[in-house]
Write a structure and sequence with these properties.
Elements (H helix, E strand, L loop, with lengths): L1 E5 L2 E7 L12 E5 L5 H25 L4 H14 L7 H5 L3 H9 L10 H8 L9 H11 L9 H22 L9 H16 L5 H21 L26 H8 L10 H11 L5 H5 L6 E2 L6 E4 L13 E4 L2 H9 L13 H11 L12 H12 L4 H8 L14 H11 L2
Antiparallel strand pairs: 1-2, 2-3, 4-5, 5-6
Helix pairs in contact: 1-2, 2-5, 6-9, 7-9, 11-13
Keywords: DNA integration, DNA recombination, DNA-binding
Organism: Rhodovulum iodosum
Protein name: Integrase
Length: about 425
């Protein structure tokens, strides 16, 4: 940093970086530090240079053809110059001295006011009109808190239905500005789904999910961008049919078919271990796949696994729990104490296992799947009379009453589970 006195005050002198040459005609800039103390000047120099960089970056963005980028650049540039961006109508209503202050802050090299700076300080950059597809682009940043802690695979699965909902809406209604979406547009979109439901192509549940995700995107952008719009999104959902749940595997099927010697040999080792691990733990497939050397704890009095938000987001805070390892599940984890890198943070485990079970006649009915092992574990605990709180704690489910005390010890839970373990 080159600091020198010009007149009574210290200034920062620096060459203009090459990146900004096309929007800054000067080769060297002098920036007043507004002090006659060299010590204070040096403490302020870094901040002054950062503000200069911010202003240049905003001016670069102001040359963009993207209306959203130009508008954001104008707001950033006004802020860098010490003003709040106001549209021209609001600027005109300011006291005269404040308007004059804005005008005097506009750089005028060769006595010609800079057009980008003038637009930012006098509010002549029009606020962009946000289309449906633009709303989706904005949504990812505005809904950032919803993705905190999600793994790459979780993020992909979270984004996919929202992208699909916007794509479907645009295909039916068009890429309209969200301010111009009418009730008729929404009813047309609903009719599109009704036609597909009646044709047997989709269920009411699927249609409702699309409507929910579309509404989430539009309402989030409207709220966070403070657009003040009243979106016509109410009373559009369909009456849903009875939710289909996976049936549990029977104890006899698990014992005589899934655990028959050699039955699972054709399945790759990590997938086989995760399937066997699920039999006596009831974890969700994604929870098992995410386990690591730190969360697989075999060298202790009660071997167990710990379901934690390690590199991923849990389904709810109830999902954080410890589960004892017993029987075939314990033996399976002894083979993979470091975890399952082949399936960690990937959505392929269930598909691989279900394909193998289906191809080898190991599904008790066509509606069964790997997830049926979770239901089977619940049924076995219920039949054994295991307390509801313990069952919910093992499954990571919410308890329908206040949770008092610490709950059952790991040793006690391990004893109970050992009685029903294969």
């Amino acid at each position: 940093m080159s600091i020198a006195k010009r007149g009574r005050l210290f200034h920062l002198r620096r060459r203009v970086p090459r990146r900004y040459r096309r929007i800054e005609p000067r080769e060297t800039v002098w920036i007043s530090l507004h002090t006659d103390s060299e010590t204070i000047a040096r403490s302020k120099a870094d901040r002054a240079w950062s503000q200069m960089i911010e202003a240049w970056e905003a001016r670069l963005a102001g040359n963009s053809e993207d209306a959203e980028a130009r508008y954001e650049a104008a707001r950033d540039l006004a802020r860098a110059r010490g003003f709040r961006y106001l549209d021209a109508g609001a600027v005109a209503k300011l006291p005269v001295e404040e308007v004059v202050e804005r005008v005097e802050a506009i750089p005028a090299p060769a006595k010609q006011p800079d057009a980008i700076e003038a637009a930012a300080l006098l509010g002549t950059v029009p606020e962009p009109r946000i289309t449906v597809t633009k709303a989706l682009e904005l949504y990812w940043g505005l809904a950032k808190e919803k993705t905190l802690g999600k793994s790459e695979d979780q993020l992909r699965r979270w984004e996919a239905p929202r992208k699909k909902a916007i794509k479907n809406f645009v295909a039916v209604v068009g890429n309209k500005e969200i301010a111009n979406i009418t009730r008729d547009d929404m009813l047309d979109f609903r009719q599109h789904w009704l036609d597909r439901i009646e044709a047997g192509e989709v269920t009411a549940n699927s249609a409702n999910k699309d409507l929910i995700h579309l509404g989430d995107v539009l309402k989030t952008v409207t709220t966070m961008k403070r657009l003040g719009l009243s979106l016509p999104l109410g009373e559009l959902s369909f009456k849903e049919g009875e939710k289909q749940t996976r049936p549990p595997f029977s104890e006899d099927w698990i014992r005589t078919r899934l655990l028959a010697p050699g039955t699972l040999d054709g399945l790759n080792g990590q997938a086989r271990a995760l399937l066997l691990g699920m039999i006596n733990t009831g974890y969700r497939p994604s929870e098992g796949a995410a386990l690591t050397a730190e969360t697989i704890r075999l060298d202790c009095d009660v071997p167990h696994i710990s379901i934690e938000p390690e590199g991923r987001q849990l389904k709810s805070h109830y999902a954080r729990r410890v589960i004892p390892l017993t029987g075939v599940s314990l033996e399976a984890f002894k083979q993979y104490p470091q975890g399952f890198p082949r399936y960690r943070n990937r959505a392929t485990l269930s598909a691989v296992v279900n394909k193998f079970l289906r191809a080898n006649g190991l599904l008790e009915t066509p509606r069964h799947s790997m997830y049926s092992l979770r239901h089977a574990f619940e049924d076995r605990m219920l039949a054994a009379g295991i307390d509801d709180r313990i069952r919910r704690d093992l499954f990571g489910h919410r308890l329908d009453r206040e949770r008092y005390g610490k709950g059952a010890s790991l040793e006690h839970v391990a004893e109970l589970v050992a009685r029903i373990a294969f």
